# Entry
Amino acid sequence: MTRILETRRLTPVTKYFRLDAPLIARSARPGQFVMLRVREGGERIPITIADYDRQAGTISLVIQQVGATTTLISALEAGDDLLDVAGPLGSPIEVVAGAHVCGVGGGFGSAVLLGLMRELKAKGHRTTAIIGARNKDLLILADELRPNCDHLAICTDDGSAGFKGFVSQQLERFIEGAGPGRPDCVVAIGPMAMMRAVAETTRAPKVKTLVSMDPLMVDGTGMCGGCRVMVGGKAQFACVEGPAFDGHEVDFDVAMRRNKAYVNEEKLSLERVSKCTRTAKEVH
# Structure
């Protein structure tokens, strides 16, 4: 059991959790993830660690409510317990020493930049973060990110905050010399379509780009083979060889098809959970 110490609603569908997890916090590094299970018989899902505090023994997660399990997690509050939290898993993100690193976060992926930007800045890297959302109400953790970045750029699709446009468009401007200037390395975390757009933006100018892949995953230790992604024409397991891969080598067509393989089953599972939740509320 892992105790939830704090929760905070960031958007109508996104929630922040701070967990009491001293063993995970002790060895966690940027880019790694944990496997969560809410209850006996429930599925295990991978969630990237947003931040960690080694001294306090805590880790922070940001979870977007999209399916059955994330709906169950989102209903939990401080004082509740998660049945299983295993980690840290996966390989940490590594960048060239002294580089100007640009972290690009889309939607809930912005949260994962917290620990990454702080660690990189502490090591002497120049740090830029670009975070985006459809509108200002869906932007998350900008205030927390700002002190950990030399430059923070905000983008919204509708122009309600910051730059009007996509994160990839803002990144293109920086590569061409605007704002903080051309980065040496880009790390993109967020929806698959956004990461693909970022990788295409950096391909021609040859800016090293890492993308954090989140394919379907069962155990998180390399045994099930469900999380394989095609990278440079070879199958690799995101749980042990990733989750960060060279964005210019990832086959996003295959990755996006695989992520939709069980969309009907996921919909049915969510409907069952939603029905049970409504019934429980009616009883009370």
Residues 263-283 form the longest helix (21 residues). The two ends are 26 Å apart (CA to CA). The mean pLDDT is 89. The chain has nine helices and 17 strands.
